[in-house]
Specification:
By secondary structure, the chain is mainly alpha-helical. The protein has 5 helices and 2 strands; from the N terminus they run H-H-E-E-H-H-H. It folds into 2 domains: about 90 residues; about 70 residues, no CATH class.
Length: about 180
């Protein structure tokens, strides 16, 4: 009987050890499965983050491209506007120069009466003959003066003579006004 009991105890111990071994193996399988699941989750998360980064970079690149195109279009439009404005200004200036040249030419009968006189180191325009003649209408001189100024032709000899006549006439008017 003791032998049977000993066999029974050995059998129980063997069953216990077998069950413990199965539990350990089951625990290892569960741990392995949990590790695989975590690794799969991590891989999926990293892939999703990589896709999101790629999408964000593509969106940023597209945004930069649109901004660059908009800037170029705006710059192009601005350049066209500036070119148009320069051409318009040049055309207007050419028109003003032509008008001023024409008016100076028509006023030559008057401006030829203005003489340059020099005393020692000083020179000035003598306008008395021009003022005394009927060739120098004040309104015509004012038109010539304004046209010359618009055209930027103040340095022309005829323009200097017109300016001298206008200055002398204004000085004479002021002198008369101060007398009264």
């Amino acid at each position: 009987q003791e032998e049977a009991r000993g066999d029974e105890e050995v059998l129980q111990v063997a069953q216990y050890l077998s069950g413990a071994e199965e539990r350990v193996e089951e625990g290892e399988r569960t741990a392995d499965e949990a590790r695989r699941k975590r690794a799969d989750d991590l891989r999926r998360r990293e892939e999703a983050e990589a896709r999101q980064r790629a999408e964000d970079e593509a969106a940023l690149e597209a945004s930069k491209k649109r901004e660059e195109e908009a800037r170029k279009a705006g710059k192009s439009a601005q350049e066209k506007l500036e070119k148009f404005q320069r051409a318009k200004k040049h055309k207007e200036q050419a028109k003003h120069r032509a008008e001023a040249a024409s008016l100076l030419s028509s006023a030559q009968a008057c401006t030829s009466l203005v003489e340059m006189k020099c005393d020692r180191d000083e020179c000035h325009f003598a306008t008395e003959r021009a003022h005394a003649s009927g060739e120098c209408a004040h309104e015509a001189l004012e038109r010539v003066g304004a046209a010359v100024e618009r055209a930027g032709m103040e340095g022309e000899e005829g323009a200097k003579r017109v300016r001298a006549l206008l200055y002398e006439r204004a000085a004479a008017v002021e002198k008369v006004a101060n007398m009264t």
